[in-house]
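The methods section describes the discrete structure representation at length, but only in general terms. An entry of this sort, consisting of the sequence and the corresponding backbone structure tokens, reads as follows.
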Amino acid sequence: MKLTWKQIEPFVKAPDPKARVVLVYGPDNGLMRERAKTIGLSVVEDYADPFNVAALSTEQLAEDPARLSDEAHAISMMGGGRLIRIENAGDKLTTLIKTYLEAPSEQNLVILEAGELGPRSSLRKACEAAKNAAALPCYVEDERDLSRLIRESVQDANLRIDADAVTWLAGNITGNRGKARSELMKLITYKGDETSAISLEDVQNACGEAGAGSLDTLVYSAGGGNPKEALRAYDRLLAEGVPFMAVLRSLQNHFRKLHLTKARVESGEPLEIAIKKLTPPIFFKQEPAFKAQLNKWSLPVLEQIAGKLMLLEAQCKKTGAMPETLCSQALLSISKSAR
């Protein structure tokens, strides 16, 4: 079965029992592993249980294909279901998975952990088409998704957080769910048992390093016509392990906001009202730079950039593409074209 984005979170919290194989894939490795673990814990109590959890790799199954069926049909010594994790899953497993799905275990669950799989991936197609399997994508989260994660995590810790602190933090920890979780734990530990709400100052003090190579620096440098600083920020982000898709999504979101606001203003809406309508909101300290960029860019050029960024995403997903190089070229082109 193929899951839509609205079905993903409900499925992760309560997996459909009809799905005996679950493919969890995508460019956000941290989010992929977190979701795979959450789904796995619906079957076993301990993800590292040596008796009820079998961790296999594509290479192991290539040498011994029968091991998948052996592990997946084994009966738990302690009772209940078993979990079979297959790491670094790819299209080499397609035939094996199709064969297994013809007579899968009704109690044990197989989870396939994979990186980015394009629409043409045979493994992805097989899991999307099968009624007793599921394909669950894990794409890089935007600021809105991260804002929700931040609020939920803070509430779970019995703390409160100010709106401007959420906005700043969401803009600086995007790119990898694992990194986001780490920064949130750091913030919650920093705040401790204090009863006051987490402020912007608290967030910057606790998670200042998260913004050292911030995506905001990159997008505002690109939008402000500063190619040198944009490329420098891009190199820092890559060095920190931020996926190129996070960079691309941030660029798309930034220029979408510019285009939307510019269109509203040119249609007669007051600038301040147009900016306040944006979701997620512009961080108040960045409003002057955002307004300056609205004056710098014309509506037709913003439309062209939006189209180029969509084309860039398609190019980056092609087999054999060099996304890091393509993104750097796009950054250079956009920042140089600012007027």
